[in-house]
Amino acid sequence: MFTPDFLMLVLNLFVAFIAVVIIMPRSIRYLKRLKFGQIEREEGLDSHKHKGGTPTMGGIVFIITSVLVVYILNFSYFNSPYINLLTFAFVGFGLIGFLDDYLIVVKKTNDGLKPLYKYTLQSIVAIAFYFLARAFIPGFDTSITIPIFYITVDLGWLYPVLVYFMFTAESNAVNLTDGLDGLATGLSMIAIAVFVIFAVMNKNYEVALYAMVVIGTLLGFMIFNYHPAKIFMGDTGSLALGGLLAALAVLTKQELLLILVGAVFLVETLSVIIQVVSFKLTGKRVFKMAPIHHHFEMLGWSEQQVVISFWFLGFIVGMISILLGVL
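Given the sequence above, the corresponding structure tokens read:
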């Protein structure tokens, strides 16, 4: 059981965790000096007003730490197309989020990147990922597997369209979910852990290793992000994690199961869409507030109750996803 590959995965996770735990306190102090604090919306919950000024853009720390640990501790993988592609997606979407966060903290408003500009940048990275994967991943094809039924379908030209929607949808879904202390961090760890299992099943230890490193950095980040949060990941972190999840799904050939693995993220997104459509068509709101995690807060749930309940749901759908991936 304790093979060299397994021990290396654990070592990478441990090093990444310790690195973030050491770096994060200094990063929090530095971000405070720069006055890079959270800007709470006026229409937001009163219970969240005190979070204004809490340092944000913490995603910078776990992104940079993850990349450094992967390449320094595993220098033999420096030219691995899997490692480089995951870094491209992780850092690429992180940079988009960083630009959005930076504009917000500089302007001291919630107006960051214009939605059209943000979506355009996300689209560029998503499309570039597909073409890079096609060029550098051995045996990369345009087929997908339907779980349980053992049916493989070659999508042809529709496959890049699917990849495009996976990246743009997942990155925005994680972004919408990042509204409570530790919520997106915990759900991302659970989802990434599922793809570690899929990668190991495929004997793709490079993908598994990268995912384990990110889990390690998120574990370290969670110490400072759980309620009451001392730092937030910001769009820098949430967009990066969404992009990484989409990349993991593509590289492990579990494109369809991403829907189930990220089911909680999907529900959060659907709650916003339903709320907006309902209000525009009927003038009425389906939820007390969207995304749906705020709806439960307004029903009287504490922030920790909502977060832990959503983590539990994420764990359940993760286990079901693994089961479907094994069958």
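The first helix runs from residue 4 to 34. Try to locate this feature in the token string yourself.
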